[in-house]
């Protein structure tokens, strides 16, 4: 599957549709080249691995008591280090990130995830290495 976004629910955006078409075309080009016997050399790529989902701070009744901090809003895939602001309480108190490694939040403050109790997803950046690849069918 391919998910290209973010975009609000029920909205069709030309720029996002264009990105989706390009990535599907690249995928189909790869399949065609692979099926034709093209050999792909080894490679290393950086990817983001999901660590955990992070909920909004809540009170004892389960009500949200803080919102995404303005410095984090719209910063998907950007590094967050210990002490960087994550949330802002309704009283104006900053709740910082407390962790021992840099993380890369994504799906930050997405409306579709409020009901799932998800403010954002913490990811870590890792490298994946692929060996050379070639179809065994010629």
UniProtKB/TrEMBL annotation:
InterPro entries: AspA/AstE_fam, Aste_AspA_hybrid_dom
Transmembrane segments: none
GO molecular function: hydrolase activity, acting on carbon-nitrogen (but not peptide) bonds, in linear amides
A Pfam family matched in the record: AstE_AspA_hybrid
Domain AstE/AspA barrel-sandwich hybrid: 44-125
PANTHER family (UniProt xref): ASPARTOACYLASE
UniProt name for this protein: ACY2 Aspartoacylase
Gene encoding the protein: Aspa_0
